[in-house]
Amino acid sequence: xxxxxxxxxxxxxxxxxxxxxxxxxxxxxxxxxxxxxxxxxxxxxxxxxxxxxxxxxxxxxxxxxxxxxxxxxxxxxxxxxxxxxxxxxxxxxxxxxxxxxxxxxxxxxxxxxxxxxxxxxxxxxxxxxxxxxxxxxxxxxxxxxxxxxxxxxxxxxxxxxxxxxxxxxxxxxxxxxxxxxxxxxxxxxxxxxxxxxxxxxxxxxxxxxxxxxxxxxxxxxxxxxxxxxxxxxxxxxxxxxxxxxxxxxxxxxxxxxxxxxxxxxxxxxxxxxxxxxxxxxxxxxxxxxxxxxxxxxxxxxxxxxxxxxxxxxxxxxxxxxxxxxxxxxxxxxxxxxxxxxxxxxxxxxxxxxxxxxxxxxxxxxxxxxxxxxxxxxxxxxxxxxxxxxxxxxxxxxxxxxxxxxxxxxxxxxxxxxxxxxxxxxxxxxxxxxxxxxxxxxxxxxxxxxxxxxxxxxxxxxxxxxxxxxxxxxxxxxxxxxxxxxxxxxxxxxxxxxxxxxxxxxxxxxxxxxxxxxxxxxxxxxxxxxxxxxxxxxxxxxxxxxxxxxxxxxxxxxxxxxxxxxxxxxxxxxxxxxxxxxxxxxxxxxxxxxxxxxxxxxxxxxxxxxxxxxxxxxxxxxxxxxxxxxxxxxxxxxxxxxxxxxxxxxxxxxxxxxxxxxxxxxxxxxxxxxxxxxxxxxxxxxx
Amino acid sequence: xxxxxxxxxxxxxxxxxxxxxxxxxxxxxxxxxxxxxxxxxxxxxxxxxxxxxxxxxxxxxxxxxxxxxxxxxxxxxxxxxxxxxxxxxxxxxxxxxxxxxxxxxxxxxxxxxxxxxxxxxxxxxxxxxxxxxxxxxxxxxxxxxxxxxxxxxxxxxxxxxxxxxxxxxxxxxxxxxxxxxxxxxxxxxxxxxxxxxxxxxxxxxxxxxxxxxxxxxxxxxxxxxxxxxxxxxxxxxxxxxxxxxxxxxxxxxxxxxxxxxxxxxxxxxxxxxxxxxxxxxxxxxxxxxxxxxxxxxxxxxxxxxxxxxxxxxxxxxxxxxxxxxxxxxxxxxxxxxxxxxxxxxxxxxxxxxx
Lengths: 686, 354
Hints:
Chain A is an alpha+beta fold. Chain A contains 23 helices and 32 strands. In chain B, 39% of the residues lie in helices and 18% in strands. Chain B has helices at residues 7-20, 24-35, 40-47, 53-92, 111-125, 139-142, 183-191, 232-247, 305-310, 327-335, 348-351, and strands at 129-130, 136-138, 161-162, 175-177, 196-205, 217-227, 258-262, 268-277, 294-303, 319-326. Chain B has eleven helices and ten strands. The N and C termini of chain B lie far apart (81 Å). Chains A and B meet through helix 2, helix 8, helix 11, helix 14 and helix 15 of A and helix 5, strand 1, strand 3, strand 5 and strand 6 of B.
């Protein structure tokens, strides 16, 4: 909100510090000043008034009060007593009556009537101040209402008294299908949620937001009815949201204003009108104010001030600060006094003050936060709890990093397009009610769609891509929400075994050894919507429990993504399941002191034979003497019989108890060969 | 058969051979010829026992002397040859050290992961535990419990992404994507009694148009310390220490200035904005800090009594501070990144720099 430096100065006899200096003081002790701009002979300060201080500081007077407290300068206001100026021959209440239908939504309504005004242009000083604050001067009556709002923070409205039918002002909710045309000639449809000011027949203003066109002040206006009311913030907020209409007035009412302010403001405005446009102020203030608001009294323990701020501020200084902020220190019962407790009465304008901590904030900021020392706490030494979730997350990430993967962070959302492409059912994904864009309409039910997008984007610059993400995914299961962490990665190219190797490495490093890969055999319907390429994907199992998937992305999906020339292999692991299986324990396996011998074995088998079958036979036949079997080559193609492949293994023989003789090794090796060759289609190559 | 061997002759032959040879293999052969298992001199030594007593001592002495003489000779020669070879190789063999090295193919951790790790480490060393919470939250934890009432303009500070109203939490609360990590304050205090010290890193969401400094999802780190007498002064010390550790390089610990300004967050009272001295200009004012010399780093304050109450604690017994800061912003400052959107782009040209 913008403020005029000269206007603020007008509240003080003494010269204020230069605008920059003043801005710095306000920033450090009250509100951040975001910008200072020079306009003619004035400066505009753009002050970021904190939302809880809108009630008293969306006004020049309010900010001047802050300055007065910060600099300890006396504030000058010259608001007149209006009684002496009233015209005793005419009574306001004979002219207009007020009827508030909902006291809850309009706790106070004050009105004044001024007759025989001359509507015209405002004097320069008013026009200048309005313009500096970004308001357009209209005529002296409207300008004064706006001026007093900027000055005091109380929005005011002026009606042409002659245009109010039935001499009535009724505060009520609109009826369905009522309409209003506002001052700026916009038409609004009203309903029962919108509070209005009405005359005997129709709404003449949207309460607390904007006036209507019909009773507008114009050149011919002679009788002005001034409104200075207080509305319930929630009500105004609702109307404003409903109509999509925000104004200087609604902004102030939404945040809440002290009901005691209406009278001060209306008297100030009436006085200005009379001085500037002439006329008579009719006798008496019409005031609907059934439940008067009194100031709050708060007990403040001075020890607590010290304990919370961490600095000792003298009693004298504390009292001084509170008084400068217009708080009253009232008589304290003797019993409390001895305990260092004082009673503080907060001005009703300070809607933000209700508990001792609020007062401590006031003391702290005016005293100066920069004067509070930095002191490490003295506390009981409690060792921090180790967070295993985070430990395993970090471990998994660093293993994948070591394996050459780059970590990506993607949006937690997917769009309509992806939802369709990946066949996510509406009943199983979570929809955002107010998405920022259609690409972010659903919460991601899997990390895969965005990983594929990453790969596609990166293909522009590189063709070897290895990425992973560890992030939360969201799903609906029987309309219950599930959110869990997934660890998923993707490698570009024909990289099934590379990916599988990475998964093995990852699981081993997390202390998991009993890993099994099961071919995934979906039903025909499942495979229709599966993202995996048939026969090129597997379930990842640990201790017979499925923890994730591994496989090539189906050519159908790659086609749709316009990646048909490529292959992408993905792993998708449920990190919650994975975490439950991890172990930090790892037992040392003694290094055998006896030498190892390596024999190679090459075997020709039909193409469809699984490596696992061959390995199983070798391991069973070899028994204890085999330490390791390592498949080092697979070949099919030229020079081999049709439909066959050649598998080549290193077999490592070693005993933990003795040196194996070559005889013994040959015997075992031969045994393996014999067992393998029992199968007529298998041929060990010599 | 005992050939009479002239040790003198042997000595001359051997010495000549050693002197003439130019390579190590030949030298080794010579050594073997005389001193090997079946070497000529070895045989002499072996045959000693067959000599008469009188001769044995004399010949033995001579033969042994010759043995050590030849050994020394061979060693010397070997050193000479090696030295020569070394000199020659040094002359001819070389490496183009400007050729690029062959890098092992390591991957990369996301810069936000790295910043998160570093932040966690610094706070853990000060006794803070790391705690997490869910990304989908309900209205109570995200707002009400944090002293942010319904239909209050204070809620406008957090532009919220709501879930379809059909989806609700078990206690029929409305659900949303958490707008800050602060709900975890409540969740943690419900289950753990003070004294406590936690930090909460995590992803948060805002209904916001994205630009170079705004994202629809980003990361925050929340802090909470509660005990009997935790004060603003304590907060200043802890947070100053954090910035110092975070922004200084090992060995070069610089003192980093911070300042507190009044701020408003409904869940703290008093509330602060925490500024750190601008690292780009050292506080003189530059384009990075819009000429102010300061950078806004976090919101913070002393835990509001209503927050203690919402978490089931008696505010009379406890006091403490809470803070929240953007991890993205920390990372941007640390690495001089000018666009927050890069973090979520998946662009390897960016990510592979870290």
